[in-house]
Design brief:
Cell wall formation. Catalyzes the addition of glutamate to the nucleotide precursor UDP-N-acetylmuramoyl-L-alanine (UMA). The chain is α/β, with parallel strands linked by helices. It folds into three domains: 9-100, NAD(P)-binding Rossmann-like Domain (Rossmann fold), CATH 3.40.50.720; 104-324, UDP-N-acetylmuramoyl-L-alanine:D-glutamate ligase (3-Layer(aba) Sandwich); 333-472, Protein-Tyrosine Phosphatase, Chain A (Alpha-Beta Complex), CATH 3.90.190.20. The protein has helices spanning 19-30, 48-54, 87-94, 102-109, 123-136, 151-157, 170-174, 194-197, 200-207, 227-232, 295-310, 319-324, 352-361, 383-389, 400-409, 424-438, 460-472; strands spanning 11-15, 34-39, 58-61, 75-78, 98-100, 114-118, 141-145, 163-167, 183-186, 219-222, 239-240, 243-244, 253-257, 271-275, 281-286, 333-338, 341-345, 366-370, 390-395, 415-417, 444-447. It has a six-stranded parallel beta sheet with strand order 7-8-6-9-10-11, with helices on both faces. The N and C termini lie far apart (53 Å). The mean pLDDT is 94.
């Protein structure tokens, strides 16, 4: 372990009783910290409280009481979603108390080296793929983070022979101080979460904290084709392994040959290859063999290849998991064919770039269901994709008028705006029925909202599940 003894005897406040908060409280208590957990929810809404109190952990529910944060508190660990404007966070920072997320604690508890994966889109797919590849290579991965298992739980289970493969959000990374992954993967950067970060500068700075503490003994995997990622390269201290779909790399890295230099030469057979430190090129897999649809998933595959090789996997062990992986729920997930129309669930598309990627992956006329939480975007980035790939749009949620306006500018005539009915589920079902009416045999109906779900649903998962249930009953 790195430094778990640093928590013994320290007074720590954990903000938030979500799954990661419960686990970090247990871990800190196990290593001797004096832990108080606080949540705005009432005691009746917090069934986890009894479990923690049975361990001797103090739990305060129903708000943030006076005196929760004082000069005697030495560390605050907050749920990533809690804003930095929350009163206890503001008080802690004013007192000079470190405010971190679970990622920081897990780093100090883990015996295993860490592969950290972040990006605006593709994190879960790439993280899962890396786990599959390291399994195939016999390298004993533990996959955790945003993907499901709390990082602290995985860190406590880890041994030196493992690799801790961690999906990390900008919310989590913003609250890190010493965190240093052995392999850091930055997939891409697109405008999103600005309601939380306040500016694109803060969002990018949070993402790039992934590399902040790396040294020449570590590895940085970055998207050579993404302008924001590319700008970071001169500032990286770690060994660089880039990946590119558009350029034949002359340095160590993963690329496609012949490269994707335009969208009109898609008939060419392409191969994903790795150029090692000595300049030798090792073919991995043809693009056509990769198990997931979409050019963007070729990028995810290349990132996973680079990270797996950086962790010690032999390149020839990676082909089979690249070929057989069929994706993660709610990410361009095929649902069913109904009345000769194919339905796809891409509920995880919570920003415009994710929807553009999904549209680009499908080669039939598309009836798009889009809209959701309004974070201030005008969605004009969708215009070229709407012009090229979409035959009709069904818009719902807070952004329905904005989505419809982009569709009108794209020259679409089949545009339906769905007003809210008695429940979010009923509204989405109404949108699906409208989409089904607009679709012809051979078309695709795609749920790819380009927006977060919280205006109507508790999560993108709930939105996607309701979509799939409704499709099955058409």
């Amino acid at each position: 372990m790195n430094h778990p003894e640093q928590y013994r005897g320290r007074q720590v406040v954990v903000l938030g009783l979500a799954k990661s908060g419960v686990q970090v409280a247990k871990s800190l208590h196990h290593y001797g910290a004096l832990v108080t957990v606080n949540d705005r929810k009432t005691r009746e809404e917090s069934p986890e409280a009894s479990e923690l109190e049975a361990l001797g952990i103090s739990v305060v529910c129903g708000g943030h009481p006076d005196g929760l944060i004082s000069s005697s508190v030495e560390l605050v660990v907050k749920n990533p979603g809690i804003p930095y404007s929350a009163p206890p966070v503001v008080q802690a920072l004013e007192l000079g108390i470190d405010v971190v997320t679970e990622v920081e604690v897990a780093y100090h508890l883990s015996q295993a080296p860490i592969i950290g994966i972040t990006g605006s889109n593709g994190k879960t797919t790439t993280t899962t793929w890396i786990g599959n590849m390291l399994n195939a290579a016999g390298l004993n991965p533990i996959v955790a983070g945003n993907i499901g298992t709390p990082l602290c739980e995985a860190a406590e289970q880890s041994v030196e022979e493992n690799w801790l493969v961690a999906e990390l959000s900008s919310f989590q990374l913003k609250g890190t101080k010493d965190f240093k992954p052995k392999v850091a993967v930055l997939l891409n950067v697109a405008e999103t979460h600005l309601d939380y970060h306040g500016s694109m500068e803060d969002y990018v700075a949070s993402k790039t904290k992934l590399f902040a503490n790396q040294t020449a003994d570590d590895i940085a995997v970055v998207n050579w084709d993404d302008p924001v990622c590319r700008e970071l390269v001169p500032h990286l201290k770690a060994r660089l392994i880039p990946f590119s779909m558009t350029e034949e790399l002359r340095i160590e890295g993963v690329f496609v040959t012949p490269s994707y230099i335009s969208e009109v030469d898609d008939e060419l057979e392409r191969t994903v290859v790795y150029r090692d430190k000595d300049g030798h090129i090792k073919p991995i897999i043809t693009v056509e063999e990769i198990g997931l649809l979409g050019r963007f998933n070729v990028g995810n595959a290349m990132a996973a290849i680079a990270a797996s090789i950086a962790a010690g996997a032999e390149s020839e062990r990676l082909t089979e998991p690249l070929r057989t992986f069929k994706g993660v729920e709610h990410r361009l997930e095929f649902v069913e064919v109904k009345h000769k129309v194919a339905y796809y669930n891409n509920s995880k598309a919570t920003n415009g770039k994710a929807t553009i990627n999904a549209l680009g992956a499908l080669n039939k006329p598309i009836v798009l269901i889009a809209g959701g939480l309004d974070r201030g975007s005008d969605y004009m980035e969708l215009l070229p994709a709407f012009e090229k790939k979409v035959k009709a749009v069904v818009a719902l949620g807070q952004t329905k008028e904005k989505i419809a306006k982009v569709a009108q500018l794209a020259g679409l005539t089949d545009i339906v705006i769905v007003d809210n009915v008695d429940s979010a589920a009923s509204t989405l079902r109404k949108a699906i029925l409208q989409a089904a009416e607009l679709a012809s045999p051979g078309d695709i109906v795609l749920l790819s909202p380009a927006c977060a779900s919280w205006d109507m649903f508790s999560s993108y998962e709930e939105r996607g599940r309701i979509f799939k249930e409704a499709v099955h009953t058409l």
